[in-house]
Write a structure and sequence with these properties.
single chain; alpha+beta; DNA Polymerase III, Chain A, domain 2; eight-stranded antiparallel sheet
């Protein structure tokens, strides 16, 4: 294999794929990136056996071939080369190393055979859906903060992507929950989406796909099967296994008749919560909300650090009541509200609260109160 490639193109493609590689691997080949020189392109593949990222970049290929090299080391070398440099990559059977050269710099990297590199099958993938990049970014950004990190309930460790039909309208919906809060975002379902399997996309896959979307064009092709999901972004593609489990019946926990409605300036509320939470106990981060006509009083008591109280004006005309929430969860939700005002809908003191964004009718957030 012998080729030359512009540094910026090499670094961009390597950057896309190398983050799939785990820093610590018991299987040496998984620390490597597969380099495939063909015609006028260099194709990069990286995998952790659960997800695979493929990208390519234009190159001047003098001799086609394949080899694998340490992904993170190669990326760091390319990152530190001068801008605008032409990088040559060469591997011959005579020297069992990949030679990376640019200007007066020359590196020899250990390699492993390309034939040993695992390739993820795309068998069973169908239902190719064309989704606007901006719509997919919105679905992910509005929901992924609520993905659980608790490994015991593994079926919550991902984003539930599925289609629903409500009132004769088909929607593509993303839902995430960790049992303490829930985030839901939806969009008009793309053509062919109805009948597609619902899949739980793993947390790491969501993060990698979201990162790739920043460099994607206007549309991404989405393919789903009961076992896998595939995102195609122009020249790049991400294929991943999905979580094998049943996502809970989330519709049951979304309040339908919370009658106590409070409208509050979102930024003022978020800053006030952040201030009083400064002295909260780290474990519970509990903030007590006393909601009265025209105002909400935020209180945090900590046996060691003291007490914090702050009052905010709100638009609320119902009867007074109190309840507590995790401050971090409140701030995560307010971060997602685009409108100047946030709409809180409450039931009783122990009932889940529904939080809505007046500027986006297609998102909903549910917060479970703390029992303190």
């Amino acid at each position: 294999m012998k080729l030359s490639i512009e540094r910026a193109a090499l670094m961009k493609a390597l950057g896309h794929v190398q983050s799939a590689v785990e820093r610590r691997n018991t299987i040496p080949i998984l620390s490597n990136v597969l380099l495939s020189a063909e015609r006028d392109r260099l194709v990069f593949s990286a995998t952790d056996l659960d997800l695979e990222i493929i990208d390519s970049a234009p190159a001047q290929v003098d001799q086609a071939g394949q080899i694998t090299a340490p992904a993170h080391t190669l990326y760091e070398i390319v990152r530190k080369l001068p801008e605008g440099a032409d990088v040559s990559l060469s591997f011959t059977g005579e020297d069992p190393r990949l030679i990376v050269a640019a200007g007066r710099s020359r590196f020899s990297l250990p390699v492993l055979p390309a034939g040993d590199f695992p390739v993820m099958s795309s068998e069973g993938l169908s239902n190719r859906l064309g989704v606007d990049v901006s719509d997919l970014i919105r679905l992910m950004d509005k929901t992924r903060f609520a993905i659980s990190t608790e490994e015991t309930r593994y079926y919550l460790n991902g984003l539930y992507l599925h289609t629903v039909v409500e009132g004769g309208v088909s929607k593509l919906r993303a839902v995430a929950t960790d049992g303490h809060r829930l985030a839901l975002a939806e969009m008009a379902a793309p053509e062919g989406a109805v009948g597609s399997p619902g899949v739980i996309v793993p947390r790491k896959t969501v993060a990698e796909a979201r990162r790739l979307l920043d460099d994607a064009g206007e549309q991404v092709d989405l393919q789903l099967s009961p076992q896998k999901v595939r995102f195609e972004f122009g020249g790049a593609a991400l294929t991943s296994k999905v979580i094998d489990g049943n996502f809970p019946d989330y519709a049951r926990v979304i309040p339908k008749d919370n009658q106590r409605v409070m409208m509050v300036d979102n930024q003022l509320f978020a800053k006030a919560v952040d201030r009083v939470a400064t002295i909260s106990a780290e474990k519970s981060r509990s903030v007590r909300m006393a909601i009265e006509p025209g105002r909400v009083i935020l209180t945090v008591r900590n046996m060691e650090a003291g007490q914090a109280v702050e009052e905010i004006e709100v638009d609320y005309a119902g009867e007074a009541f109190e309840l507590s929430f995790n401050a971090r969860y409140l701030l995560d939700v307010t971060d997602q509200i685009s409108a100047p005002l946030a709409e809180f809908r409450f039931g009783g003191p122990n009932d889940p609260a529904l939080v809505l964004d007046p500027s986006d009718a297609d998102v909903q957030y549910v917060l479970m109160p703390l029992r303190v």
